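User: What would this chain look like folded?
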Amino acid sequence: MQAYKLKRKIDQSGNLLITEPLNLPPRNVEIVVWAATDTLNHSTNPTTESAP
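Assistant: Here's the prediction, encoded as structure tokens.
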């Protein structure tokens, strides 16, 4: 199995938009979607507050 990584968008109707042709022969394919997050917090320092 060969994997291809593409960055694409999902429109307001929920359709996956792939606007460029892929150089593949006609056949069935499997699609895996990882939804990108807008912001990520990669902090390794926990936030602590003093007890009153």
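The first strand starts at residue 9 and ends at 10. If you want, I can go into more detail on any region.
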